[in-house]
């Protein structure tokens, strides 16, 4: 492999990365990228390894030995500090991060996103190790514009909705809106990491992903996850399409999101890993401001794309409205709009997303169809009573 150069033309030394949550959606794509394109070593920590099994076996893989899986729960495992010490860089991805959990399992959500991350920050700080911590765009909460009257012309002014790392406030709902337990826990861990940087010199980077989507995201209920489980919207809608059910639009599907292709976003993370001088001390929005849709528009586009990749015609009524109370239960609330400001990531790392929403849905739904269509068909065949 030719020597890799950083953005300032210096050769990049191979490093060892302790990746916590490596077996999840983002972790699996990051491991794949690191194995295929870099000489770095990965200590992959997680409670599950299904999504990275293809990188761990067989022993004949070209990167064999460069990735080692450690099955552990960071809540209670004394091996954690030793593994952080063995690495040059720690990347923390571990979290409960599905909205259906925030209001129904708020304690688990707060523990997972704040308390369980504390020892990771402490061990990095005490051992002078660099930390890349995964936060979320949800720390911005609602936009300022959402509090303006519906007909106010200021709602169209980007100053009232574009989310900027260094100036936008974090606006959450009341405590009984437990949806915000996740965002609030993530905000507090960001503040703690920032303070460790300011007071104790911790080298940190905070990543705020804006709806990264792609293959291997979450699970399909009843196939590779619990039948009653509620994953994030990409997997919910994929599940509906695979089962030929209408896609459920929560509260009319009016909320807006910007979706970025996981493979574009992983490029940004690799730039952070390999350019510490440009990434340390920064908080980065990572999203695609050009891919904005309402959830209703997402449902319509996914329906069209799925018909194309599966060759099956769409339903006559492809969507159905549900209330958030019915879908998520008491205490749900929503972010109205999420447009990332790209100034800081552009300036520091020169990164820009490339993939359009249509293209990323086409490759993702091709994967969903190939991976799940047969299993769903089999699971839907009713056993004949004898
Ligand atoms: N996917 C996105 O668009 C997105 C958006 C915003 C923020 N994030 C953040 O990025 C990170 C990764 O997200 P993801 O989409 O890959 O989620 P994911 O659920 O697929 O991955 C998280 C992984 O962490 C592991 N994990 C959780 N608790 C653990 C523990 N106590 N010990 C060991 N492993 C544990 C899980 O088993 C899972 O494999 C999370 O911190 C999430 O909050 C993701
Ligand atoms: O991905 C992100 O950047 C962050 O946002 C997500 O939050 P959210 O976008 O609200 O979660 P989704 O489940 O992807 O839902 C998106 C929207 O679709 C709606 N939805 C979801 C599922 C469904 O079947 N129907 C439906 O209308 C939700 O109400 C919401 O408005 C999650 O909190 C995290 O993964 C992450 O931190």
Short overview:
With 386 residues, the chain is an alpha/beta fold.
Secondary-structure blueprint:
Blueprint: E1 16-20, H1 25-37, E2 41-46, H2 53-56, E3 67-71, H3 79-86, E4 89-92, H4 99-102, H5 106-113, H6 118-126, E5 130-134, E6 162-163, H7 181-200, E7 204-209, E8 212-213, H8 233-242, E9 247-250, E10 256-258, E11 260-261, H9 262-274, H10 276-279, E12 282-286, E13 292-294, H11 295-310, E14 319-322, H12 324-328, E15 339-340, H13 343-349, H14 357-380
Parallel strand pairs: 1-2, 1-4, 2-3, 4-5, 5-7, 6-15, 7-12, 8-11, 9-14
Antiparallel strand pairs: 10-13
The structure holds nicotinamide-adenine-dinucleotide and uridine-5'-diphosphate-glucuronic acid (UGA).
Can you walk through the features of this model?
The chain is built from 14 helices and 15 strands. By secondary structure, it is α/β, with parallel strands linked by helices. The chain has one domain (95-373): 3-Layer(aba) Sandwich (Rossmann fold), CATH 3.40.50. Strand 1 (16-20), helix 1 and strand 2 (41-46) form a beta-alpha-beta unit. Helix 1 packs across helix 9 (262-274) and helix 11 (295-310) crosses helix 14 (357-380). The mean pLDDT is 97. Bound molecules: nicotinamide-adenine-dinucleotide (NAD) and uridine-5'-diphosphate-glucuronic acid. The site of uridine-5'-diphosphate-glucuronic acid has 21 residues, from helix 8 and strand 9.
Radius of gyration (Å): 21 Å
Secondary structure: helix percent: 25-40%
CATH level-four homologous superfamily name: NAD(P)-binding Rossmann-like Domain
Shape: globular
Structural class: alpha/beta
Number of domains: 1
Strand content: 15-25%
Lateral strand order in the biggest sheet: 3-2-1-4-5-7-12
């Amino acid at each position: 492999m030719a020597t890799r150069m950083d953005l300032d033309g210096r050769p990049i030394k191979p490093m060892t990365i302790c990746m916590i949550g490596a077996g999840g959606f983002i972790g699996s794509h990051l491991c794949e990228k690191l194995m295929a394109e870099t000489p770095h070593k990965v200590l992959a920590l997680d409670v599950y390894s299904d999504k990275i099994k293809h990188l761990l076996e067989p022993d004949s893989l070209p990167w064999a030995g460069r990735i080692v899986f450690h099955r552990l729960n960071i809540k209670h495992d004394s091996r954690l500090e030793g593994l952080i010490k063995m690495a040059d860089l720690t990347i923390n991805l571990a979290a409960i991060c599905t909205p259906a959990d925030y209001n129904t399992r708020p304690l688990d959500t707060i523990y997972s996103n704040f308390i369980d991350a504390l020892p990771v920050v402490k061990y990095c700080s005490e051992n002078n190790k660099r930390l890349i911590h995964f936060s979320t765009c949800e720390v911005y909460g609602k936009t300022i514009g959402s509090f303006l009257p519906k007909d106010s012309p200021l709602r169209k002014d980007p100053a009232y909705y574009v989310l900027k790392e260094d100036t936008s406030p974090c606006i959450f709902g009341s405590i009984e809106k437990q949806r915000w337990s996740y965002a609030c826990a993530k905000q507090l861990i960001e503040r703690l990491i920032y303070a460790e940087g300011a007071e104790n010199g911790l080298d940190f980077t905070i990543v705020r992903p804006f709806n990264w989507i792609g293959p291997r995201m979450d699970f399909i209920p009843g196939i590779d996850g619990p039948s009653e489980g509620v994953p994030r919207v990409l997997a919910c809608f994929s599940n509906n399409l695979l089962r030929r059910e209408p896609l459920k639009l929560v509260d009319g599907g009016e909320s807006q999101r910007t979706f970025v292709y996981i493979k574009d976003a992983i490029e940004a993370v690799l730039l952070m890993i390999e350019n510490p001088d440009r990434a340390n001390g920064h908080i980065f929005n990572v999203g695609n401001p050009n891919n904005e849709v309402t959830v209703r528009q997402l449902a319509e586009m996914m329906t069209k794309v799925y018909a194309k990749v599966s060759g099956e015609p769409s339903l006559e009524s492809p969507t159905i409205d549900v209330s958030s109370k019915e879908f998520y239960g008491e205490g749900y609330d929503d972010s109205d709009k999420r447009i990332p400001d790209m100034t800081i990531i552009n300036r520091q790392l020169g990164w820009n997303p490339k993939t359009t929403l249509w293209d990323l849905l086409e490759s993702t739904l091709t994967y969903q169809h190939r991976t799940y269509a047969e299993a769903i068909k089999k699971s839907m065949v009713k056993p004949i009573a004898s």
